[in-house]
Fold:
Amino acid sequence: MDMPRRPLHPIIILGSLLALLATLPAVFIAWLTKTASCEPQCHSGLSKVQFIIAVVGVLPVATLLYASLTARRRLVAVSLVLGIFVYALWGLLNDAAVHGWGNL
Structure:
């Protein structure tokens, strides 16, 4: 018999929603980086990879919001850690795509 879940604090739900909204500018910046570094043609696949990672990063953050709305505490923790990891990786790759590996 499953016990009912206690709802999470509204701040956690609000934070999850804001995190999901924050993925929108990240994906937009990644798209701009991909577009700007591909003028007239791409010299490196790094700009494409950082864009793909930014788009894929929306999944754990959307899962974070879902988990916080359904009070799944473990899924919240896993999604949060995964989302932080993915967007930290994206930030590193985006910086490398813009400035090169030598100027990190």
In short: The CA atoms of residues 27 and 54 lie 5 Å apart. The mean pLDDT is 89.
